[in-house]
Design goal:
Order of helices and strands: EEEEHEHHEH
Structural class: alpha/beta
Largest sheet: 6 strands, mixed
Strand order of the largest sheet: 1-2-3-5-4-6
Radius of gyration: 15 Å
Distance between the termini: 41 Å
Helix content: 10-25%
């Protein structure tokens, strides 16, 4: 996560804002807060914040890990820890004022596309979870991210 400049729509979609080390069973993982831009439902370009929890496996160059996106409501460090112990990176929208239903799915659509493009994410192992309004958001993300076509 080297980019510290302003986020853009293509090359630098995630702007690193804060970082912190995490102790994951005696190994160093990380917590990264990022800013990103996305198109709102009215077409206006807005800025939001995401949090990524990174497992210790990423200390090795060239490693790709599964990604779990927690949709709707934010997961905290304690909730992310069991996934980190399994070598899974976790992402979540961070500190957003609106309920997931009120803000709509565009924010998380844009975020998931940016996260899947990160060089350490194994795009073949992307998972989405959410409960309540986050469950609705998870379904909307899955439908947009992994579309099906019926002949």
């Amino acid at each position: 996560m080297p980019h510290g400049g302003a986020p853009d729509e293509f090359t630098h979609r995630l702007q690193r804002a804060e970082t912190a080390a995490l102790d994951v069973d005696g190994k160093e993982g990380g917590e990264v807060v990022c800013n990103f831009i996305y198109p709102a439902i009215d077409g206006q370009i807005l800025t939001a914040t995401a949090k990524l929890f990174l497992p210790p496996e990423l200390a090795k160059p060239g490693v790709r890990v599964p990604l779990l996106h927690v949709a709707g409501y934010e997961i905290d460090t304690l909730g992310a820890m069991e996934y980190l112990k399994e070598g899974i990176a976790i992402s979540t929208v961070h500190a957003h004022a609106l309920n997931p239903l009120a803000r709509g799915p565009k924010l998380e659509w844009a975020l998931l596309h940016a996260e899947r493009a990160l060089p350490f994410v194994d795009d073949a192992r992307v998972f989405i979870q959410g409960g309540s309004a986050g469950g609705y958001t998870a379904l909307m993300l899955a439908a947009e991210t992994f579309p099906l076509s019926v002949p």
